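Contributing new records

If you add data, match the layout below exactly. Sequence lines come first and carry their own label; structure lines follow with theirs. Keep one chain per record. Anything else will be rejected by the validation script.
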Amino acid sequence: MPDTPGYGESDPLSIKEPTIDDYAAGLHDLLLALSISSCFVYGSHTGAKIALVLGAKNPELVAGVVLDGLRITSPEQREQRKSNYAPLIVPVPDGSHLLTTWERVLKTSSAWFVPNPSFPKLPQLVNLMRSELAAKPWYGQAYSAAFAFDPLPTLESFKGEVLFIARNVDQLSLACKEKLPSRPNIKSITSIDDGTEALIATDVAEFFSDVCAKIPINMIENRPSATRWVETQFGTSRVNKKDQQSIHLDLLSTVSLLDSETASTVSIQLPGFGDSIWKQEFPATRKNLIAHILEVAQCCNLKLTEDEAFEVVASSRLSALSQLLEDVQMIEPDLAGEYLVKFWQAVNQNELLERPTNEGEATQLIVDLLSTTQECLAVSELI
């Protein structure tokens, strides 16, 4: 699951105004770096266009594509969306950029999806918010590329297998089904979206079972991964093994410990940040954080005493981080966006960031902290 360059935790392309062809070329290079010689590619919205171009230009590499919500629009529609949809996100001292982004997420979602009392849920909206904020100045790049791209000519010449998915709540996708070329290699379905992705995944799995038998599954299963997930009584942390030797507490989210046997660094993402989850039944105290780190280190076969762990994490910064986690754990998202104001106040009143607070760092910290709301999101009322 690679990030699109410039989004998630990935660097942007070095091109000032990249096209869909540029993003497809970047994905091609990534597949080569991973030694993947044959695959199917799933893409959603902009990712669907990238997947389509990648497959069209590299038929020996891409046997087929799943296009979830591919947009087929007129030149006038493409120009209008390119001009109005992808503004820069510039952090400002009063935090109003958070509310502006949230309002755009709500407006965009209501425009894309058929009115439906069960969709979208707050988890989807908050995740959209997080992804927009994380991309910041590069947020509009891939969208501008997507709005300028007409997929029809590529679809008409594409030789591989195609599954086009139109979600029942996605108004634009449903309209695009009728515009698909009538070709035997292109299959289209309407998939039920209940907000969990479970039914979408079932439809994709059925497609794979029909056409993917020739792909050697062990090609991927046997490849070692530098990333793993470790769960303790306090939460779940993403753990990465790196080659460089270092021991430190990063500004926002990770503790790095040196493995004395392999001379490599194991980076432990603190639960409650990024993709790692802190269990809300436990207070986010420094004692509990250290206990969690010790247990993760033990699961990773690191030789680490409690004193050594304490030496790494015993700092005023971790105390401030613990306090911040305690302050934001019970902040529940709401449609008005008031939860973002509370996050901004909590971050700016905390001692974790230096004074005066850098608005960009504060925004990035909020992106990380929003993952602490996962538990309350799971039981939130639907829109």
